[in-house]
């Protein structure tokens, strides 16, 4: 699983005398760090370039509007997804310090690229400080190789951040779901529609815990595109009769992803209660009773093999024709498979082996999908 780095601070040029600066060519530190990290196998998250430019006040007064709040919330959400934060403090301002402090409080690995001597205030928020950008990047690469977070710890941290807004509605104009981009050649699109709380037919339902973390982890491990509910949903957009893209933002977004990535089928992850049988309940929804899909059939076949190999109870159930996901398959013109996971698999703090076994099984299945 690749580690991810968030670059914080103004996009300045690299100071004179630092070895990463190419001869006769001036590059910004952000572009240089981006290229360096990609070559070393790290993913780089591009934050808001300069949030402060959107916060210009009129005279000496300023009142934040919804747009500025949304931008900051977006930046924090990006940091939540990252393992490292590298802050440029050579021309430090709030665009450098606030992400650094936020990441530190979230338990991220914070690194500062800063002039020396170092302030004791900085040391309290940065785990490591370097005067050279090259040394800072090499340190991050070493930490990434030596201290690669286990999928268990990553999932727990992701679920913790998700719970912070699980029962909050998004800011006006924002969506209630998060998209993880992936490899265009992947056949599947992963969806966790109930990773946060939601309303359905006038009733309020709690989040299906760790379905979001599981889906996000699989996306990171296999580079498969994924959509995860990130705020409380005012309506259950996936399991609803309103499947017109004009009135359902989630459906409209899924249609765009299907077109861009040439998606062959959807995989929807659901949680199941303690009272249910301790197994994976799998249902598939084709476009018609006589229809077939080689990609989906290959996935289901590999899933069953992997489940047997890891001694996970697997149950393929018949899909009812009058099902919301059957209507979804018709609306999107792609097959849908629903995987209901028993609660015992979705408590990594207490049942680490169960969760780890499940992730390994699904990772192997996705990586062996039909090309």
Strands ordered across the widest β-sheet: 6-10-7-11-14-12-13
SSE string, helices as H and strands as E: EHEHEHEHEHHEEEEHEHEEHEHEH
Percent range for helical residues?
25-40%
Separation of the first and last Cα atoms: 21 Å
Number of helices: 11
CATH architecture of the largest domain: 3-Layer(aba) Sandwich
Outline:
Helix content is 36%, strand content 18%. It is of the alpha/beta class and 371 residues long.
Note down, in words, how this protein is organized.
- The model is unreliable at 49-57 (pLDDT under 50).
- The protein has 2 domains: 4-146, Rossmann fold (3-Layer(aba) Sandwich), CATH 3.40.50.450; 151-367, 3-Layer(aba) Sandwich (Aminopeptidase), CATH 3.40.630.
- The chain has a 7-stranded mixed sheet, with helices on both faces.
- The protein contains 11 helices and 14 strands.
- It has helices at residues 29-39, 66-80, 94-105, 120-123, 133-146, 151-163, 211-222, 249-261, 294-309, 324-332, 352-367, and strands spanning 4-8, 43-45, 84-88, 109-113, 128-130, 177-180, 188-192, 198-200, 203-205, 226-229, 265-272, 280-285, 314-317, 336-342.
- The protein has 371 residues and is an alpha/beta fold.
């Amino acid at each position: 699983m690749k580690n991810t780095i968030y670059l914080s601070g103004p996009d300045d040029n690299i100071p004179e005398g630092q070895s990463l600066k190419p001869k006769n060519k001036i590059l910004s530190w952000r572009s240089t760090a981006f290229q360096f990290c990609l070559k070393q196998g790290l993913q780089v998250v591009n934050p808001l370039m300069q949030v402060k430019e959107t916060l210009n006040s009129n005279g000496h007064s300023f009142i934040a509007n919804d747009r500025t709040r949304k931008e900051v919330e977006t930046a924090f959400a990006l940091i939540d997804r990252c393992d490292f934060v590298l802050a440029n403090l050579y021309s430090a301002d709030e665009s450098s310090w606030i992400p650094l402090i936020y990441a530190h409080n979230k338990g991220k690995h914070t690194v500062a690229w800063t002039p020396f001597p170092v302030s004791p205030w900085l040391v309290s928020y940065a785990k490591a400080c370097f005067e050279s950008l090259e040394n800072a990047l090499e340190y991050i690469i070493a930490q990434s190789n030596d201290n690669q977070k286990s999928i268990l710890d990553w999932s727990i941290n992701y679920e913790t951040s998700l719970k912070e807004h699980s029962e909050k509605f998004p800011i006006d104009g924002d969506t209630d779901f998060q998209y993880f981009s992936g490899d265009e050649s992947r056949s599947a699109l992963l969806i966790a529609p109930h990773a946060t709380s939601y309303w359905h037919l006038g009733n309020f339902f709690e989040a299906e815990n760790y379905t979001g973390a599981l889906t996000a982890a699989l996306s990171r491990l296999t580079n498969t595109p994924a959509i995860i509910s990130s705020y409380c949903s005012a309506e259950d957009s996936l399991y609803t009769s309103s499947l017109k893209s004009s009135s359902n933002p989630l459906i409209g977004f899924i249609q765009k992803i299907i077109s861009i990535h040439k998606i062959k089928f959807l995989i929807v992850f659901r949680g199941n209660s303690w009272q249910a049988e301790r197994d994976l309940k799998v249902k598939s929804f084709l476009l018609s009773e006589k229809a077939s899909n080689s990609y989906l059939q290959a996935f289901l076949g590999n899933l069953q093999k992997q489940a047997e190999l890891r001694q996970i109870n697997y149950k393929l159930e018949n899909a009812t024709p009058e099902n919301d996901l059957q209507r979804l398959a018709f609306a999107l013109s792609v097959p849908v498979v629903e995987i209901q996971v028993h609660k015992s698999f979705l408590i990594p703090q207490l049942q680490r082996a169960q969760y780890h076994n499940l992730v390994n099984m699904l990772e192997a299945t996705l990586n062996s999908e039909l090309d």
